[in-house]
Write a structure and sequence with these properties.
The structure is a homodimer. By secondary structure, chain A is of the alpha+beta class. Chain A is built from 19 helices and 20 strands. Chains A and B meet through helix 6, strand 4, helix 8, helix 9 and helix 10 of A and helix 6, strand 4, helix 8, helix 9 and helix 10 of B.
Chain lengths: ~550, ~550
């Protein structure tokens, strides 16, 4: 049975993680049947996969060499090589020069010590508490992560950012392909002005007074109606209006999690979600994403042996990969959720930003058992400045979370709610949405063309059919961090893959956002990144050998 | 030394609270000096006060009778009577018919069990966690507390409230003196429309885009400048913009508190603050408020013997009493905070709503050591629907809390921040503020006149010099709950005193809000309450003896 571990126990566990797994202990985990019809390498990879996902093979532990394991199992070395290759391509194991093959770590520690000498004296002594840890964790993330959402301002009134990339972005002429925000010139300014002009006088109390914790009733009704159009069977009582998706993540996390509990996320996934869950003390289990979305086939071992509190997924136009979870996997995911009674938190900020004829349905549309908690926001569709998002969930969950919200937030700003509701009812709104979709589709196409023109063909890309992001696998062993440094010299920026990965991976990936930039910036930005890539590719020839020792290499 | 107690330990402690304190154990706590010049009753009350506030005399424990204690201490019974009388008037002890004299309880338990049969199955088993406790706590408060801020709506679109009073308020013709909100006809609708019309186009990204976690820089600067005008030495770096004061309370609570920690609050105090702190697992120590604000003289014993994490105070136009902390007590409070290194959380939603010539300064104006965290909001001054509040604090605290805010909220709505900032810079704003102050002053005077005309002279009131509330001591043994019931029959409502009291007191008090109601409603409302009072006073004559057994009576 799974038991909670305290911070110090976890610490101990972490320091022990480099323990070797002998060939015999691996053998004990496997039950090979030579006449089963399933190839032996498959049986081996399957057995080891389950052992890794269930924790029987600890993260960071060293696996036997191919030769040693082949000997003990009485199989060819090629069989083991194939099995390891499969596990490696799934992101479960990786090779380290000088250290052999290790089970990948999916948890990143948050037990850093921290003492700040500039604190008022009554703040001393708090450093060891949860809050100091959170502070440090968030601080580390801020340093690592290169996003637009963590800007701050100096006393001089000039914008400056905490992060290196932010700093570049604040300079003139820098092109940012990092920002996951709507295009400034598409912000519905006229719509907001019209709404305020036409209705504020009449709606003075609705728009400027207090409003219920659960959200303005009119807006809850409108959101429910719009969700029914997308196939989700909900009414106003199922809707909890939120001050942003982040608030929803926090409320659900506090509601479902105790520190030390486990949560399943996709690898890669939205970094803000990782941050919020880690701040609540959650241990995050990563399931890889491929071209059809989350590898739901890998999920069952986790659910069967561990007790994650919920499964966090972005099934539609996933952030950062842009992929859509396939219909078959959606069915399978819902089945698993039902069978193991683990709820799904569906995060769907981009679902309405589709570029093809068929509008995707939320996963929740197929949820007949109330196992999906659905989260979405108007920050991407209308304007981040309105700060209006929502949760669709069973009424009893809405009621419970509303109590939390009342105690820590009271309510979401009534003005934003009123404006959103008014906008959603105006004829101009559908036109506005169509324009938005066309514009983003056009920008994506521009970006793809520019990539074809200016980047080496060895970059691997799967063009998304909606959303705001393009996820790129860099050529060969090129590292995203190195490219970011070179790109900065060319006055262009983006987000590197690492912060989206709870397993420490993503070194060879970058995320480009095409929504917030102009046509000219897209072409110029891609061209500049292409120059940076070329420079790296040229440099890498002689440097290759020297750079290796500190890098992780693919297994085999 | 103080050590944290777990929930179950606390439970045990609570069930033991009716233990008697023998005269001998009291004697051991006292060191009487007959020739010291301090009267003996003073020495006794002083010794017992310190014992109560430091926890040496447990809450709820029974004190010896006057006769028994007098015998052991070799003093006159009158001496003990005087000492008990003093402690009783300070709210530290109270008499119960049939149970003697007890040390008042200042903690209210939150260990209620809770199981909800309508939950999805994956929610079972969570009932015992913190969240279920919070849920239950908040639910209990909602049932007990009669405020306007917890409204909810039914599927039928009709507003209904969770609370009895809310229900009355939703009916037509009911006059609510409960609502602590600005007057609807004074909401700055024109100002908002003008601001949006004149500037939204130019400020599209500032108003509708993402904004920094710490708040829009322009607004932070404006708020800092306005605070400097009120004598507080801060700049933009000291300002953290919040989505309401409640968020500030939650952030500070999470930052400074671990479950089981103690916090000092005033008795009575803002009930939302009690709710948020309790939800974080805080144990709340109450210090009585009199006509000059918090009894700071009683605070030192608490600070000397216990380790509260902070002192929560509303020094200016306190909610619910309306009192202003006297200059001398302000100095003393700051001294104690410095000496014992316990920070002060100053909550100041009403400071700018003064009715006299001299604008009160925040407590923080005299804070030379960065020990005051200052919290205020534009919900009362401008409009609740904007949901813009702020914290002024040492920069290091702002930075730490911003990390928390980022993880759980990301940022406050940019549109509201931009509107507030624009409004604060317009010439119309000062005029608007003057109108607001004059209007509320006028409404208060109307209310006082009506009280003189329609209420028995035995009601005790101290008219405030600012804010939104009038705090009333009902005649004799009249209970607020009984009056609320009678008043509901007359179609008028208000907030009873109990929820503002962490010590279980307040039975004979009610809070009237004069801001949100019209002149006519004020006069009619007071008249109706007067009728309800008369009915109760007439009923009480014969009932007196019967009603007693379940009531707490003043000591002696």
């Amino acid at each position: 049975m799974y038991t909670h571990k305290s911070g110090s126990e976890r610490q101990t566990q972490r320091t022990q993680q480099s323990v070797s797994q002998g060939s015999e202990s691996i053998q004990a985990l496997l039950h090979l049947e030579r006449n089963s019809g399933t190839p032996l390498y498959r049986q081996i990879s399957q057995g080891m996969r389950e052992a890794i996902l269930s924790g029987a093979l600890a993260e960071g532990s060293r696996l036997p060499t191919e030769r040693a394991l082949a000997q003990v199992l009485h199989v060819n070395r090629t069989t083991i090589m194939n099995a390891y290759h499969e596990l490696s391509s799934e992101g479960l194991i990786e090779g380290h020069v000088g250290r052999g093959t290790l089970v990948k770590r999916s948890y990143v520690g948050q037990d850093e010590d921290y003492v700040d000498q500039e604190m008022p004296s009554w703040l001393f002594g708090l450093a060891a508490g949860e809050d100091a840890v959170l502070g440090e964790d968030a601080r580390l993330l801020n340093e690592q992560v290169l996003t637009e959402e963590h800007a701050e301002y100096g006393e001089d009134g000039e914008q400056r950012n905490r992060t290196a990339v932010g700093k570049y972005a604040a300079q003139r002429a820098v092109i940012s392909l990092a920002q996951s925000t709507p295009a400034a010139d598409l912000l519905p300014v006229e719509l907001v002005r019209t709404v305020v002009d036409a209705g504020l006088d009449r709606a003075r109390e609705e728009a400027l007074g207090f409003c219920p914790v659960e959200g303005a009733h009119n807006l809850r009704r409108t959101i429910a109606a719009r969700m029914r159009q997308r196939g989700v069977n909900v009414d106003a009582r199922n809707i909890l209006v939120l001050s942003g998706s982040t608030q929803g993540l926090g409320l659900i996390g506090r509601f479902l999690l105790t520190s030390g509990d486990e949560v399943v996320v996709e690898v890669p996934t939205y970094l803000g979600a990782i941050q919020t869950m880690r701040a609540l003390g959650a241990r995050v289990i990563g399931i890889p994403v491929d071209r059809e979305g989350m590898r739901v086939d890998l999920l069952e071992s986790v659910l069967a042996r561990r007790q994650p509190r919920f499964i966090y997924t972005l099934p539609t136009f996933q952030n950062p990969t842009g992929v859509v979870l396939s219909p078959e996997r959606r069915r399978h995911l819902l089945q698993l959720s039902r069978r193991y009674q683990v709820p799904i938190l569906e995060d769907d900020p981009y679902g309405e930003l589709y570029f093809t004829a068929d509008a995707p349905q939320p996963l929740k549309a197929q949820d007949t058992h109330g196992n999906v908690l659905y989260l979405s926001t108007y920050s991407k569709l209308l304007a981040p400045g309105l700060r209006v998002a929502w949760l669709a969930a069973p009424e009893t969950v809405v009621e419970r979370l509303a109590l939390h919200k009342q105690v820590f937030d009271l309510n979401t700003n009534a003005l934003g709610q009123w404006i959103v509701n008014e906008m959603l009812h105006r004829d101009e709104f559908e036109l506005y949405l169509r324009t938005l979709r066309q514009s983003y589709k056009h920008k994506l196409e521009l970006m793809l063309t520019a990539i074809q023109n200016y980047w080496p063909a060895t970059v691997s890309i799967q063009p998304p059919t909606g959303g705001m992001h393009l996820w790129c696998r860099l050529p060969g062993t090129m590292r995203a961090r190195a490219l970011l440094r070179e790109a900065a010299r060319e006055q262009v920026t983006f987000v590197i893959g690492e912060p989206f990965h709870v397993d420490g991976g993503g070194h060879h990936y970058i995320r480009l956002s095409f929504a917030a930039v102009s046509d000219e910036e897209i072409t110029a930005g891609i061209q500049r990144i292409g120059i940076a890539m070329q420079r790296l590719l040229t440099q890498q020839q002689p440097d290759n050998g020297q750079a290796r020792p500190s890098e992780r290499l693919p297994v085999i």
